[in-house]
Amino acid sequence: MSSARTVCVVACACALLATPAATQAPSRPAWLEPYRETATRLIHAATADHFAWRRLAELTDTYGHRLSGSENLERAIGWAVETMRRDGLEDVRTEPVMVPRWVRGRESAEIVFPLKHPIAMLGLGGSIATPPGGIEAEVVVVGAFEELRSRAAELRGRIVLFNTPFTTYSDTVAYRTGGPRAASQLGAVAALVRAVGPTGLRTPHTGSVQYGQGIPPIPAASIAAEDADRIARLTARGVRVRVRLTMEARAEPDVESANVVGEIRGRERPEEVVLLGGHFDSWDVGTGASDDAVGCIITWEVARLMVKLGLRPRRTVRIVLFANEENGLRGATAYATRHAAHASNHVFALEADSGVFNPASLGFSGSAAARNLVRDIATLLAPLGLSDIVAGGGGADIGPIAQAGNAPMMAYLGNAGRYFAIHHTPADTIERIAPEEVSKAAAAIAVMAYVIAEMPERLPR
Ligand SMILES: [Zn+2]
User: Fold this and answer.
1) What is the C-alpha to C-alpha distance for residues 294 and 50, in angstroms, rounded to an integer?
2) For labelling alongside 129, which of 98, 305, 340, 361 has CA 20 to 30 A away?
């Protein structure tokens, strides 16, 4: 479980770590001529209006956040199944997944000495509660794990604040996932973690915390960068800052949820699958519009556009809205288990879980032979400004099945700075997302998926 979580917490960002290494392809590879007209039609259909953005608004306005185990998520799943069927997708179904149910409850934090000052905070997902009256203790501020260890003698009975400035998600998130565990090992009674994201507008960022086996769990919360800095400045002046943290968070028994699946059945090789998707669950703040409702909507759009244009490629195009990426990765695991016997029939897998913010790019992981073909196909995306392929495709949800089937993987990569500014925050709402960014992403994925599903030979592994 803990190793699965290690994958999942970096999921939304793993593809963003790639070194941009764009390569040049000929501007009009001859083998693509038969696909050029259809690619143009797909791009026109995707970008002619704001359909995808309106659908994203309908989803997030009607159902709100979609935390695993919540009624919101189950109602949204029902809507997605019904709407996919209305779109004309085939074999629309749910595949059951047991998911954790964590409930935030009421929560607060405040500086109580040298003055009373409320702290902008969000409990970390999976955190335990404090005692009903809260935990009040002096704060020890550290900037890194090394500093934590060097000050081990000071930590017993204290609240540790990890005040680590955001660099990249993958580097900084280690303090959110592993900081509380490390602090507990050294005797701390609670942990605060500076928000993992660019400094916002006094914005805490939630996300999973990982407790270790045999290490007592302690309450853990994210606090806004401004509050973390204030506490750090006070302590640097020698002030013994005291904080009270109060949290009601609790874990309840697992509940049944589901992956949502819809297809365009392949006309010649239906057993070969081009897998596209995102995760339908979100954190319980904001509406999870960028993480990852939009990833679900733009991949689903691929199938809707194919129905609309009367396209039935040679291979099956399968859309999966995965369950429980954020705090368990159970949907990804369940899909890989259920489809294990057919893993090698997955010819290509694409995940959209990095937003759609411009400037965006496409990341790819696969053999050199596959990469050359994908690079050629990307020349069809020149009208969208997406003709470069960068290194590093994949995603937490498609990872298990793609690894089992050794399938080439792609990620749609929205701009990381804009993505992480609102990631796991109350500000993750549709207001941040421009309709044109959604349409463009859907168009790019549609063209890529169509050609890979249609070309005579399967994409090499
Ligand atoms: Zn995500």
Assistant:
1) 13
2) 98
